[in-house]
Specification:
Elements lengths: L1 E5 L6 H8 L2 H4 L16 E5 L7 H13 L12 E3 L2 E3 L3 E3 L14 H9 L6 E3 L21 H16 L11 E2 L16 E2 L2 H21 L3 E6 L4 H6 L14 H19 L4 E5 L13 H15 L3 E5 L17 H6 L3 E5 L4 H9 L5 E3 L1 H6 L3 H7 L31
Parallel strand pairs: 1-2, 5-6, 5-13, 7-8, 9-10, 10-11, 11-12, 12-13
Antiparallel strand pairs: 1-6, 2-6, 2-9, 3-4
Length: 413
Amino acid sequence: MSLVMHQNAIKLKELENSMQGNNKGYRKQAINTRQWVPRHKCTNIFRAHDCSWNVQDESLLAMNAMSKPFHNLFHTYKKRRMGNFNLSHRIVLPPLFRARSYNGVPQPHTVLYYSQRATKGGLLIAEATAISPTSQNHLNAPSIWSREQIEAWKLVVDAVHDKGDFNPTGQAPISSTNKPLTTNKGHGMEPRPLKTDEISHIVNDFRIAARNAMEAGFDGVEIHGAHGFLIDQFLKDQVNVRTDKYGGSLENRCRFALEVVGVVVEEIGADRVGIRLSPFSDYNECIDSNPQALGLYMAKSLNQHGVLYCHMVEPRWDISGENKESPYTLAPMKKAFRGTFIVAGGYDREEGNKVVAENKADLVAYGRLFLANPDLPKRFAVDAPLNKYNRDTFYTFDPVVGYTDYPFLEGSA
């Protein structure tokens, strides 16, 4: 599950000073945690607020539009009504795992990280978040099933709003299948397939997590159905080899995902629910033989639940960071889905503006660029140079380096 935030202005100097100045006694040893990824489940959560750019920001945008020959700059800065949320621009922070939530609990540096990336009327989607003790799939990934975790998330949410907007514990990791990742043999335990009568309990875990997200103050929930997590494993026919009602046909393979959507909608309302899907991705060896049919079926089925948005990863996306050639596009899914359609996967400033201008997307998510540029919307607005990201620091435990120390444009912080 990923948690969604829409922002509204916290004074961050004290927090920044405590993080940066007192770093020596606070920082933990930086260790790269990109290890075996168990086939498990998580959710993302989002955040939003009814706001708009202030006068200074609008003047800055207007000045840039007059002084630069960039074609239709304002498309990514056009306001967008998304359900009950008024977005002041179309630039979205997608869920990015950062391995800084020690023991599953968001930390003070988590508050700073998300606050740095908050803009008035913007949309932030928090990183994949474990929904139960059995769903922890990464060391130091955040969770939202305990009182301590919920209270910690409240601090993150409040900071964003104020500014404007498993590691296995002896249990076998659960999956749709018992197929291990061939690329990671020797790392972790072989997963076991969920028993049919266990699936309803997992579905209910999503319901409870959504309820907890509302208690923490999030504006909504993004169900994580992408990149080899549990829902994606059910969706893809090269991984899902089940013979019960959750395997075989396209309808059966999508059953689990839609059951999760159904209970989350029932719990918190369709206007607070989004889902992330990657039908074309082969990440973590989750592959489908007909990804376009899968994407279309899900897009049309989601309409029946009236969810707020569908967030899809481009067919060209590759974990390497380089876009690959693909005969597919997301256009059929965009056309089929009735809600807000968010695209992600290798976009830069010009491409993002272009897909919005051509009505191929309503919003555009920028992962690595937003990670390395906390003031990305402003940099895009003035066509400023971008900080380069450092992949070596993506998944370390360090609360500062590669996390909260990327510089702002002068006067942006």
